[in-house]
Amino acid sequence: MRRKQHLLRRPRTKIGAPPGTLIHVGERKVASTRLRLLDYHADGCEERDLQQIEPELAKRDSSRVTWLNIDGLHDPGIIEEVGRCFALHPLVQEDLLNTQQRPKLEDYGEYLFLVLKMLRIDPTGEVHTEQLSLILGPSFVLSFQELEGDVFEQVRERIRGSKGRIRRMGPDYLAYALLDAVVDSYFLVLEE
Length: 192
Prior knowledge:
single chain, 29% helix, globular
C-alpha cells in the first residue's frame, strides 16, 4: 500500500508563485549536490568534480564537448548558477527543480531541453525511478539527476578510453549515447 500512497502524493508547490520561481518540488534524495565535469575532444579528455559552476564552461571552443552532470536537484542556487552560465530560460530552470515532470522535449532555439525517467534495479530487485533532464547545446550537454549513480558508466568509459567514435563526434552524439543507455536500462528492468 505504501507504493500507492507515493503515487497519490501531491507535489509541494507554492500556490501563486510567479512562473520561473525556483522551488524544488519532490523528495530530497541526496545530502549534497555533486557537479561532475567531463570535457573532451578527439585527442583528450578531462574529468573532475567541480566545487562551483565555472562561468567559462559555456564559452569553451566548439571543438570540445563539455558534459556537466549534476546529481541532486534540491539546491535552487546551483540550478540558478547553471542557468546563468549557460543562459537557460527561467522556465527551464523551474522545470529542472520539479522532479514530477512528464517526459517531454522543448526547443529553445540555442538548446534542446529533454525530460525523461531513468529506471534502475537495486540489488534487492526493487525498481527505482528518477527524473533525468538533459540540455543539449551547441558544444555541451547538461544532465540533471535526482540521485548520484546512473546508467551512464559505459558511456563515460567510452569517452575516457576513446572507444568507438564518441570522442570524434559532437554533443548531439553524446546526448544520443545517454538516451540510448537510458532506453537500454528499460529493457534490463523489463527482463527482471
